[in-house]
Amino acid sequence: MEFEIIHLPKDKWKGTVIPIKYTTDKYYDVHVNKTGSGFTIEIEKKELEEAITHYSSDKLYEDHWENAYAWGMVVNDELIAAMETDQELWSNRLRITELWVSEKYQKQGIGHALIEIAKEQARRERRRAVILETQSCNVNAIDFYLHEGFTLIGMDTCSYKNNDLQRKEVRLEFGWLQEEKKKLNSKDIEIRMEDKDDWYDVELMTQHAFWNKHHLGCDEHYLVHKLHRHEDYLSELSRIAVKDGQVIGCIMYTKSRIVDGEDTYEIITFGPLCVEPKWQGCGVGELLLRETMSLAANKGYKGIVIFGEPDYYPRIGFKTCDNFNITTSDGKNFDAFMAIELAEDSLKGIKGKFHYSEVFDNLPNEEVEEFNKRFPKLQKLRFPGQWD
């Protein structure tokens, strides 16, 4: 069936009851045995003498989940599936606190789609794992989580009552662990100028990199499309990263300027700098940036001014623009507004207000939506941390 998963805002859905029900004729028998040198734990699937049905009622956005965020599926104004996550900040993990699909709608791919959203949230937030709990008697859920790539990571033999072992309802913890990504180097990828044959692939990769990152959908891929044809685009500095014949990253430079009264100073900026999600965290962006910074320095450019992520660019050497007596066009400074000198003291004596190319301001939503038709359709979805 076709379905659409949507964000369930807290102000509307807080307190909504999730009616959990499952029937099972099997269970995972848990035995904890003390030995002379420690403990042994045995967990084995067994048949019940007769099937049992479990009922419980949870609620969305319980107060003890401080960073809860929920998605779900609504049919004819009725909630028929829901998932809630909570950021476990101290351990850098993402916990699925609720995962439910109405019995009528099970085995139609909805649970899988919800799990994929949790994995995507973990990837975006760079959480090291997605974790959840279930019970040793909920065999169908356990089999589902195993199929989705989860593995047993722990248990609690007195989570619900002191006789959980005897009741055959032991809390089991499952986790999906992010793979540790290998850093790529200049021998692993090709960094080169793009040509017109690359344009579609670069725009598609940019769409993937930014989709649902800052807001619903994105417009950065349309910006790249316009940059390719704009007079301020600096193709001689811009570069793409290619691996195994596929475009996996790009950095796009444009002309910009700093204005101080009657004085105007030519400067450069880049944006977007992006990497295909599969390869994010592998050092591709840094390779692109360092190579093009060297190119720009060799061509005599004095510095680069950007709007970028404050947690990323300072380790490359960028500093906030108040260090250089540079402000935004409306006279402001903030952590995401940064610059870097391309030679020692190359920005000394340059001060004023920064102005980027007009191409960045000319991205009407209706044009972006029309441009999106050129690419495979992607779902617009809310995630924590989006700007709007």
Layout of SSEs?
Blueprint: E1 6-8, H1 10-13, E2 17-35, E3 38-59, E4 69-75, E5 78-88, E6 93-101, H2 110-125, E7 129-135, H3 139-147, E8 151-156, H4 164-167, E9 171-177, E10 190-192, H5 199-210, H6 220-227, E11 239-243, E12 246-260, E13 263-275, H7 284-298, E14 303-307, E15 319-320, E16 326-327, E17 337-341, E18 352-355, H8 365-372
Parallel strand pairs: 6-7, 16-18
Antiparallel strand pairs: 1-4, 2-3, 4-5, 5-6, 7-9, 8-9, 10-11, 11-12, 12-13, 12-18, 14-17, 15-17
Helix pairs in contact: 5-6
Largest sheet, if any? 7 strands, mixed
Helix content: 10-25%
> In angstroms, what separates the terminal alpha carbons?
30 Å
Number of E strands: 18
Based on CA inertia axes, which overall geometry fits?
Answer: elongated
Helix and strand string, N-terminal first? Answer: EHEEEEEHEHEHEEHHEEEHEEEEEH
What value does the Rg take, in angstroms?
26 Å
Low-pLDDT segments, ≥5 res: none
Provide the residue-averaged pLDDT: 95
Helix-and-strand structural type: alpha+beta
Strand content: 35-45%
How large is the count of helical segments? 8
Strand line-up of the largest beta sheet: 1-4-5-6-7-9-8
